[in-house]
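A brief tutorial aside. Many learners find it easier to grasp structure tokens once they have seen a single protein encoded end to end. The record that follows does exactly this for BON domain-containing protein. Read the sequence first, then the structure, and try to relate runs of similar tokens to stretches of the chain.
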Amino acid sequence: MDDVTVRQHVLDELELAPMIDAAQIGVAVENGVVTLSGHVRNYAEKGIVERVALRVRGVRAVVEQIEVRYPDNPRIGDEALADRCARVLEWDVQIPERSVSLKVERGCVTLQGSVPHYYQKAAVDKALRRLAGVTDIVNLIAVTPPAEATEVEARIRAALKRSAKAPDTIRVRVEGGKVILDGCVDVWRERELAERAAWSVPGVSAVEDRLTLA
């Protein structure tokens, strides 16, 4: 698919997203790489625009250069925003107590610390992205300790044996905290099952899915 067509499809998808103002978003495409520019009303919308672009067929990657502009609310001071972020994290049961520290500078929240599961790292980001005053989130939280290759493979194999028709067609490799899935599956559901199984293992910080449909 050529870049002109991909760009138009991204624009069309943005128009169909009721929670964002597509007129404020610029889209450029080169070799399947989409660059998003313009501005949105809050940080949550920034993430929505990126996800909308990524789901369009032909998009290889997204470069996000969108600015957050709060139209109605006065700018929240960094000290007040930091206090608000800390309180939100304290009340979230998915995030281990005292596992995350944060710094706020001009609305940009930088997160540090470590958690045993990737879903906990993602939960921190999700908890803060809807707060008024947040203009960006830099998530530097580590997932530790690193996953054991034998444990990752054993969990994935067990999950696939419960549901997949041919679990032996999937190969698993672990490099540090990164899990690489390779091989082929009969249906997309088995691919999603393998990914979920990999993410569920403590210490997994990334999953690279190279599975193909047979």
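Self-check: The first strand starts at residue 25 and ends at 30. If you spotted this yourself, you are ready for the next section.
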